[in-house]
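Bench log, entry 3. Co-assembly request; chain sequences pasted below exactly as received.
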Amino acid sequence: MPPVAENDILIDRGASSGGLAGVRGDFPIFSRSFDGRPLIYLDSGASSQKPQAVIDALAEHLRDHNANVHRGVYALAQEADAAYDGARRRVAAFVGAEPRTTIFTKNATEAINLVAYAWGRANVSAGDAVLITQMEHHANLVPWQVLCRERGASLRYLEVDEHGELSLAQLDAELARGDVRLLAFAHVSNVLGTINPVAEMTARARAAGVATLVDGAQAVPQLPVDVAALGADFYAWTGHKALGPTGIGVLHGRAELLEQMPPFLTGGDMIASVDFQQSTWNELPYKFEAGTPPIAEAVGLGAAVVYLERLGMERVRAHELALTEYMLERLAQVPGLRVVGPPTAARRGGLASFTLEGMHPHDVAELADRAGVCIRAGHHCAQPLMRCLGVSATARASVGVYNDRADIDALIDALNAGREVFGL
Amino acid sequence: MDDLYRDYILDHYKQPRNFGELEPHDLEALEHNPLCGDELGVHIRVVDDRIEDLRFHGHGCAISQASASIASEELKGMTLEQVGQLDADWMIELLGIPVSATRRKCALLNLKVVRGAVTGDRDWPA
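Structure output for the full assembly:
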């Protein structure tokens, strides 16, 4: 093995290490080791780890309060109702949204598909356009591609410049063409890290009479998000990247639009009444929650946002900004390494995607794993963006509330050790 | 010495044998590794039902590139029937390194492309 021995001995997690005090201890997974090495988890952009409070909330719900919701008259069922509706209130309040317009889905992908099917099929016709950006995750690209093909509409892209940013001038020009029905874009790019100017973009779209959908999957876990202030008609995000469990996503929608929209999935729970030939729909948000919802997962997500609120999202952002600054500074010292996206940490979320000359990203990630460092490699579900960047793949390190400078140091040591294996 | 990135693997990665275009060619195929967006194509020249010559082209990780390079030397001279019978074990043994479940796709990409060009079966390995 190459010299990664420093990681074996001791990782300094002192007060000066840039960590949020005591936070790592809340995440039991960090007591695990891999071949005697501590877990260095730098893949929170893919999925975050879970604090004990979330694990406990899930277990407690399943152990003590489990029943189906919205149907039972007995006390236990009412506890389940209270837990599920309480989770919705907490999740909505966390991002400045109303419970009535906060819909639980399976994940962010399903939340976006809900809009593409229920709103899109009713509002996008032949000759119309949907405007997205070159930096979209496949989750906010493929649903629009399918919708546009089906409706005979065109799918157009805002370009990403050499700093990984969008141009408001190009947005204005596209909106001025008069055929755009929807503008859909990521709040924070999962590849470039770019934080897009959401409020400016939605204001321009609104002025042009264009609906907006924002993919907040990467934003909600790391930025203070106020859905009302951002002004999007639809805002989608997912639980598992925000310290919550998998299987739970969230869609916030503007009430007038949600009321006009037909249901997405149909079946139980989403109806007001069912006759032999026709049915009427339940009120918001239940109209969009067909079937037994992810009850325990919602409760878990409720616990996650309470945990994040206690940390304070301003502090979370400050912590991840400082770590990202440090990461960019350290990555710049690795020969042959090129970071994509905004050059300064202030314009980006807590991640860095990079290429390393002479090594494929898969090999970079495989060799990082030898030192217990978990990073992602591949196209990050953003193949069109990869083409724009002129690469087939990148490696990506992303931080969370539990990371500190020692994790970044371990990454840099692992990258240097990997270069040595490759004789670079 | 690294278990996976042995000297001969890195040598094949850095100086892949039989890479480039082959004109004219009789058979060709192109495949993507959906995991990472890598792509690998092959041009094959056939004489008397045997692979007379072949060239790979594309880009990928050390494992996929080294596999293609190593396999290319073995594939020359094989009959098309023999190629159609090659299986995953043949490639993994030839590669001579422990390949994890995730990297198996990388290691087998070249054989998938070659089999696709020769047999038309693009669904291998099932």
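The radius of gyration of chain A is 22 Å. The mean pLDDT of chain A is 94.
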